[in-house]
Input
Amino acid sequence: MYTIAICCSKKFKKEERLFSRKLKKLGINVYASPLHASRVWESLEEADKVAFAAGATYRHFHKIRKSDAIFVLNVKGYIGVSTNLEIGFAAALDKRIFFMEDDIDYPRKILIDGFAKTPEELIRRIKDVKTPDVLDR
Output
């Protein structure tokens, strides 16, 4: 079974849940982005926020490591700091990287294997793209 880690800003938790649900229905194993309720986050002390963020970051890195590819759900092109870290981590592991929207940042843009607006399109792109040799990027 193919596994995809979703990477996105917590701003897009609704879109991420819908996209993940559709991928699962299509037979894809999905690791969701570590999204947390803002009410819970706002109630945490600073030290707890640091611990929570570290745990969420490393947990998602582990999910990326176990995935075949990542999908960056960059609605209207937005990519936050955490998502940027996840893209770099996936690239360092030579994972396939797919985006929802094109990217204006050229250092990230060269890492993209394909684009997909829908779960169905993502599955087609995955099947179309051969795993590239790092030197071919």
Observations:
- The longest helix spans residues 46-66.
- The domain at 3-7+14-71+85-129 is CATH 3.40.50.450 (Rossmann fold).
